[in-house]
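Here is the promised in-class demo. Please do not try to memorize the tokens; focus on the logic of going from shape to residues.
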């Protein structure tokens, strides 16, 4: 086994990490193992130190690490076959998973297209919407209507529907498709439909939809909680309005549940808070329980049949690793594991723990807001977070977080105990109290 010094040295010389510089690489922490909700980090002296993963590895490890049920599903599939092309061939894990997804997805979702990643699932959703409009004779409907503050992935079509100013892709302005952006929904999950800010936002969205009705193919948003755009919750009333506008103008409604699906906000899918069903649904992240990269784009029969009867006669997409059997097998095990327990009660308990544990942070200097929705806890600072200082300060208290922009947040695994949640919230609060 290489020493920590050798691994980290070679890493710095060779590897690009997400949103990082190769010439000025950020400090790295070397993972030697992981189990349950804890990472084993190399201490640089031949040993390891443990840290609770308060990020669930960017929100996907809902069952934690090395879960015996998921390990067993993966090993059993390896003993059969690990991969086979999905063109002209099929296999039981894919069929069983598709059936399960249709069973739990909002009505009237009925069909499943497997993808490599969340970003690709958004690419496929946008393709579906464009092909749908062409099949209906609406060749001029080539744009997406969305809202500011959103994030949908790092490939080109998803980048075009991310926030064009405050998002992470402003360097690509001019190279991206110009979409139609409405204002960010007013903040607050509990905001009422008669609230003046909601009414002003609704009026603006109605005007945009009417103005661009002949150009827009679909509305695309993250339902209820904007994730990487700022961990920003908004009212279910906003989602209801977007469904109404889609129906009124002949747009499709695409809901990006990559981060919010599988219980994270307190309902299995975040759209359930508004009792709204999409025409196209994107899922990923927690789909495989964090074991492998996989996502899916789901749609209604009306969308699927319209696209299939249009020019080309098919959805024009086909990844090499589509419906990978390993990913399908572990996804099915992850979903069954989630639904076999009272996950909603556990998410509610985590939410209560985050609410009480992060509440003291609201009184700290430099804190702008503290908010919790489901198993998501956020402390928003008044200015940009000092990433290295904050990460190190929280890690000294036995917790791993990955702050960004002005946010220190947690999306812990659902298997976190009450004691784990208390450790996470106290570590974040104490680290902020030290000063940013």
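The designed amino acids, position by position:
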């Amino acid at each position: 086994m290489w020493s920590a010094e050798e691994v980290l040295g070679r890493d710095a010389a060779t590897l690009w990490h997400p949103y990082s510089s190769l010439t000025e690489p950020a400090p790295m922490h070397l993972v030697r193992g992981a189990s349950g909700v804890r990472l084993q980090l190399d201490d640089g002296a031949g040993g390891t130190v443990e840290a609770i993963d308060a990020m669930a590895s960017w929100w996907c490890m809902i069952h934690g690490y090395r879960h015996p049920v998921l390990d067993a599903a993966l090993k059993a599939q390896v003993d059969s076959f690990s991969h086979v092309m999905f063109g002209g061939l099929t296999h039981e894990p894919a069929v069983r998973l598709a059936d399960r997804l249709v069973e739990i997805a909002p009505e009237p979702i009925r069909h499943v297209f497997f993808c490599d990643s969340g970003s690709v699932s958004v690419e496929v959703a946008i393709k579906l919407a464009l092909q749908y409009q062409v099949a209906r004779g609406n060749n001029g409907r080539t744009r997406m209507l969305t809202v500011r503050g959103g994030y949908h992935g790092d490939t080109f079509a998803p980048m075009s529907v991310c926030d064009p100013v405050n998002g992470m892709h402003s360097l690509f302005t001019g190279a991206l498709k110009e979409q139609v952006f409405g204002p960010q929904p007013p903040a607050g999950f509990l905001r009422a439909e008669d609230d003046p800010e909601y009414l002003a936002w609704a009026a603006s969205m109605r005007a945009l939809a009417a103005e661009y009705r002949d150009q827009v193919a679909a509305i695309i948003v993250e339902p209820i909680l904007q994730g990487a755009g700022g961990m920003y919750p908004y009212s279910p009333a906003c989602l209801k309005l977007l469904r109404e506008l889609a129906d009124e103008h002949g747009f499709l409604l695409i809901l990006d549940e990559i981060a919010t699906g599988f219980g994270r906000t307190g309902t299995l899918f975040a759209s359930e808070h508004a009792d709204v069903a999409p025409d196209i649904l994107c899922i990923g992240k927690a789909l495989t329980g964090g074991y492998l990269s996989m996502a899916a784009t789901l749609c209604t029969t009306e969308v699927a049949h319209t696209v299939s009867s249009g020019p080309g006669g098919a959805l024009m997409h086909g990844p090499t690793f589509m419906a990978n059997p390993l990913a399908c097998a572990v996804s099915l095990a992850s979903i069954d594991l989630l639904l076999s327990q009272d996950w909603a009660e556990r998410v509610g308990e985590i939410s209560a723990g985050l609410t009480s544990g992060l509440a003291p942070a609201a009184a700290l200097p430099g804190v702008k807001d503290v908010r919790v929705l489901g198993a998501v806890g956020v402390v928003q600072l008044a200015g940009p977070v000092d990433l290295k200082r904050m990460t190190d300060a929280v890690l000294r208290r036995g917790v791993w977080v990955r702050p960004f922009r002005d946010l220190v947040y947690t999306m812990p695994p659902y298997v976190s105990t009450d004691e784990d949640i208390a450790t996470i919230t106290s570590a974040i609060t104490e680290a902020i109290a030290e000063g940013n």
